[in-house]
């Protein structure tokens, strides 16, 4: 029984000590918060001095804020580009969000192009694959499915190579920078509050010293006033020493936090380098996607033209990539690109020489048949040397393969570093 009572008393003592510690910590934190609030308010009212950061540090802060703002805008708009309708009737975006938070793989979901292609193929079965409409639906549906597959691959590549690094910066690095900047601001407020206390303590000490010297030289009053002035002066001297000690501690903590924050802000340079690499990868993925779409549509046009006897449909359904329409001519007519600029003389392939800036290697993506003697026929997967010359259309390059030379379309090539 006695042991039980002693155990209860011991627990009560420990609980009291814990409560006392918690109350003291709470009071200390409240005091610090109040001191910072007073300092911040007086700064806003122009009644207190503020420690200013150096110009280099301010420049790092401005660049970090600029990086965050534009990265966020680019990230949001890229999401809109890749997924124009994020909230649809299927709740796809909500499902993706839940899978992402659960760290699980998002299940396969067909793209709109693949769904359209599937509908066309099913419709062709109903109408009859042997009918003109049914056979055309099969051809177009198959092309739409391939376009949808290329789109899905582009979305996945862009998300991994471009969106994910931007999101990691906003949700990771930037949150760390924001946290350290907030801590630096608190350290600055503490430092300026210590400076203000030291300034007030020195002013009070000087005032007490002046009052001690000004005591009237009467026999009755001098001893008592002298003792009081000396005591007040000693108290203020102790207060000054305490304020100086607090100032040294606050200055050390501020300098340490400023260095930590500076290192994080200087890391923005490496962030720019990483985002630059991701941007190149995004452009490569986009170029590959549009090149595949162009190739699929050209094949579809050839199939439909051969199946329908090369019939010309309204609005020029079959498009020749080497020609464009004349805005003043008949809608069914086409003009070569070179004819749009009468002052530009035709390019003489025999006279073209590689530029001094050098040449590049390129891999051929698709077979290409030359339309005339100025062009070079291509075979898929072969390597050729390419370069450009002044005044040449940006959609074409000069290609060389052994002793053969001619113009080649850029969309059929993958430029190698």
Main attributes of the structure:
417 residues; alpha+beta; five-stranded antiparallel beta sheet; two-stranded antiparallel ribbon; 7 helices; 63% helix; elongated
Radius of gyration from CA coordinates: 39 Å
Strand content: 5-15%
Multimerization status = single chain
Structural class: alpha+beta
Uncertain segments: 87-91, 214-222, 310-344
Q: Per the principal axes of the C-alpha atoms, what is the gross shape?
A: elongated
Number of helices: 7
Element-by-element helix/strand order:
HHHHHHHEEEEEEE
Termini separation comes to: 87 Å
Q: Helicity range of the residues? A: 55-70%
- How many DSSP-defined strands? 7
List the strand order in the largest sheet: 6-5-4-3-7
User: What's the main sheet like?
Assistant: 5 strands, antiparallel
Average predicted local confidence, pLDDT: 78
What's the topology here?
Blueprint lengths: L1 H43 L10 H28 L9 H10 L10 H16 L4 H82 L8 H45 L1 H40 L15 E2 L10 E2 L23 E5 L18 E5 L8 E6 L2 E6 L3 E3 L2
Antiparallel strand pairs: 1-2, 3-4, 3-7, 4-5, 5-6
Helix pairs in contact: 1-5, 2-5, 4-5, 5-6, 5-7
